[in-house]
Structure prediction request, 418 residues.
Amino acid sequence: MSLIVHKYGGTSMGSTERIKNVAKRVAKWHAAGRRMVVVPSAMAGETNRLIGLAREIQEQPDARELDMIAATGEQVSVGLLAMALKSLGVDAVSYAGWQVPVRTDAAYTKARIESIDASRVNADLAAGRVVIVTGFQGVDPEGNITTLGRGGSDTSAVAMAAALGADECLIYTDVDGVYTTDPRIVPEACRLEKVTVEEMLEMASLGSKVLQIRAVEFAGKYKVRTRVLSSLTSPDIPLDEEAQSGTLITFEEDQSMEKAAISGIAFNRDEAKITVSRVPDRPGIAYQILGPVADANIDVDMIIQNASEAGMTDFSFTVHRNEYQKALAVLDARVKDAIQAGAITGDLKIAKVSVVGMGMRSHVGIASLMFRTLSEEGINIQMISTSEIKISVIIEDKYMELAVRALHKSFGLDHQDA
Ligand code: ASP
Ligand code: MG
Prediction:
């Protein structure tokens, strides 16, 4: 009898009406002979509300107490869902993270799952019960309640599926799968039938927010067959149809000939560019600039150093926007005079656009097609970075949507019928 984990996001759990629909869907899978574990999020908006309450008392909430508060949203969800299932005549039981237990480290508000004890859940499954476990939360070695960071229920579900050796983890959400790019920007974007873990990791880190990135890492590490699909379909649609819908996250590249070289276009406006001008071109200079930035715990993404002229060069890099001011302050205090640099300037009006695809490893000409497309649109490239399956460029932010649309088209990702 196969074992299936369902995860429902906040929107899917957004009202008691919707929770009743979730119960109907789960009951359908249960009636079809599946052993079922369900991991729901808090009802939509609830985690924000709880964190807001905490902030009304303490501007910088105490992390332990904040987790105590934030974790309650999921506890309400599991209880309501268990009741809804019982009302349908399905035997169900709900658990908080500590009751399973889902063991985490002690890093409040961003804890990592260390292990999950599957025995209690397995005993209930063996007794024919649907088991409902809170997403987002766990318990640390001292018995304190922890949470996994925003969006953490995805990770809870995939980790639970790994611990139980589930046949599949289905992530039900308010979109019907993973798209070639954001359909709000490119109406011609298509749903991908399959996407590899590596591609998902790149897309998630580049700004596509379908799944929490750690959930994808878990799926890859523990080989959990994971599918993203819509919770907005009728709960009564045939199970076979539902089981094939959405996007499957796979571990192997699709080798078929028709497969496009590129799977998706990702983008974000999360970064800012900093340029240190007129730095001497000599060994150690990159370290002298970026060492203090790293010491301040600031992540650097793209880096570019121009060819030097008369022994001087410009050095640019990007950081997350939230750390932009901090990075400028560090450079001012610890770098500028130390290396006798010229002006230090910043630019917030940038966007990062990336093409992602496993096919890049076996196709040539991806970079040149990308650059040709941007040049035909008159878009200037400020920085470039590449990995085995990704090429990213920094451009002026006002051209971001134009760039995404043009690239989507030139890489042949637009709908056939568009
Ligand atoms: N309720 C938590 C949040 O809003 C976890 C989740 O929904 O995945 O971040
Ligand atoms: Mg989510």
